[in-house]
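Exercise: predict the fold of this chain.
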Amino acid sequence: MDNAEFIDALNQIEKEKGIDKEIIFEAIETSLVTACKKNFGTSQNIKVVINRETGNVAVYAQKEVVEEVVDPMLEISLAEAKERNPYFTVGDVIDIEVTPRNFGRISAQTAKQVVVQKFREAEREILFNQYITKEKEIMTGIVQRKEKRNVIVQLGKIDGILSPNEQIAGEEYNFMDRIKVYVLEVKNTTKGPQIYVSRTHPELVKRLFEQEVPEVHDGTVEIKSIAREAGSRTKIAVYSKDENIDAVGSCVGPNGSRVNVIVNELKGEKIDIINWSEDPKEFIAAALSPSKVLAVSINEEEQSAKIVVPNHQLSLAIGKEGQNARLSAKLTGWRIDIKSETQAKETNFMSEEELSGSEFECSLEDEINDDVFMEDFESEEVITDEE
């Protein structure tokens, strides 16, 4: 390739790839300085200049004008400088051409290497810009392989890394499985963009609801808070800005169609959807669903709440290994202490006035209907404060 073809090629690269040719020229010049010193062993201050119109390459030794020369490699006398140009004065720097023979071959090789490198850098930058917009969103990936304990998931042109901490316990990731992941972070590295993804992040559930529920997507129904124990159970609190729209019903969908899509994507993870309320008592009572609540007493300073539930629903309220109470506390942001009605009366846990004045009602029919949930929530042994 002659110089004219080289210039034409750079113009084409600039047009098609969006890489500024001036950046390429400067990178080639910098690389040629290194190549010149390496191949010709000079200790001079070297400058390489490429003519932007013709592509011709010239090498210059830069020398400082001095009264008396100490280092001929770096300095030139004032008298010799004035022979070149009478306007030179002490302290000026003169460029003296010292282009070696056969330097054209070296410059051609270097230019090729630099152009290839700039191509790669530009492609990495383009990819990074494409994927950085996916950060904090969900993507559909295809499981490729396992590296040590990491699962590598293909996300279009780039592979995502699903680390052990971000994998759902007990979930299997088999070759070519299609899974949805939450993009935690996109990093720009020397090897290209690196994407870190999660299957356990609570925001994954939120983004899935945004995909499946139009009312959540358009903001009519808002997800106020999420508490998740990945692979087991998630509680979400929802609120409708339109009083004519049922927030919970929208998220559940006809015959559970919408929430079932999300449950299936999460391999059977149970999802409780409850109504958010600005009244903390109502919110806490709803959060303990499916258990019914008889009374709630709150201490705003300590951000704590005392809850009384029907005797036969204490295990249901606490949940298996305390999960229901734990998730309810995470969801509401309140520390929760639960007692059965009998325990509350025996320990003066709550005053008679608070118990009798509660607005939370629990009919016998409701209690019987909710017994179907007992298997999921009950623990083999419930530890109460008295024990």
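Check your answer against the key: The mean pLDDT is 85.
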